[in-house]
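Hey, resending since the last one bounced:
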Amino acid sequence: MPFYVLVWCVLSHCFTSSVQ
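The structure tokens again:
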């Protein structure tokens, strides 16, 4: 798994958590 995929997942999770 490329590193940027992991970063994207983390950022996406944080964004989703902050929205909800």
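The helical segments are 3-19.

Sorry for the duplicate.
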